[in-house]
Automatic annotation (TrEMBL):
Protein name: HDIG domain-containing protein
InterPro entries, per database record: HD/PDEase_dom (IPR003607), HD_domain (IPR006674), HDIG_dom (IPR006675)
SMART domains from the UniProt entry: HDc (SM00471)
Superkingdom assignment: Bacteria
Gene3D superfamilies named in the record: Hypothetical protein af1432 (1.10.3210.10)
HD/PDEase domain: residues covered: 15-123
NCBIfam families: HDIG
Pfam family name, one: HD
Length: 183
């Protein structure tokens, strides 16, 4: 599936603009991680872009989230490893995160929201003014962006990355699409 086709598919299922921006942010982080890890950038990007495709339909039933999404992707001919990564990103299903793509999506999902929160507390409200040092400081503050699981982000170690490098990759990747994110 080409990226434009995937974006059209996503917009066919997701109507919430903030969720679309979240999907774009996770896609950017996944692409950055794939580049760093020497993996398939397009596949990683696809997993990031489409990981919450079912969220409008499953927001009230977290146990259904990602099961429906993975089925939608399978029905549209998305590669099985991408569909599995989407399915495994929801902890309710207790699926093993086997591949680097599975593990990357698990870590990338919360870091995107964490970085956006860091941008939004700045007076400029721009990603350009966020740096890794400030992210590391905020990482230790449990009340800051408390919905962004520190444990999930710290799982970047399963990718062979230290937290500093992971935050750097995620931040730089999101800064590249700041205009698309409105930040």
């Amino acid at each position: 599936m080409e990226r434009n086709e995937a974006l059209d598919l996503l917009k066919g299922y997701l109507k919430n603009e903030n969720l679309i921006k979240h999907s774009l942010a996770v896609e950017a982080v996944m692409r950055g991680l794939a580049e760093r890890l020497g993996e398939d950038v397009e596949k990683f990007g696809l997993a990031g872009l489409l990981h919450d495709i079912d969220y409008d339909s499953t927001a009230d039933d977290p146990k259904l989230h990602s099961l429906l999404g993975a089925q939608i992707l399978r029905d549209h001919g998305v590669p099985e490893d991408v569909a599995y990564a989407v399915e495994a990103h929801n902890e309710y299903h207790d699926l093993e995160r086997k591949s680097l793509m599975d593990k990357a999506l698990w870590a990338a999902d919360p870091v995107s929201g964490f970085i956006i929160a860091a941008a939004l507390i700045r007076p400029e409200k721009k990603l350009a003014y966020v740096d890794v040092k400030s992210l590391k400081k905020r990482f230790k503050e449990k009340a800051f962006a408390k919905g962004a699981s520190r444990e999930q982000m710290a799982s970047c170690s399963e990718l062979g990355l230290e937290l500093d490098e992971f935050l750097e990759i995620a931040l730089r990747s999101m800064q590249k699409i700041a205009d698309d994110l409105g930040l």
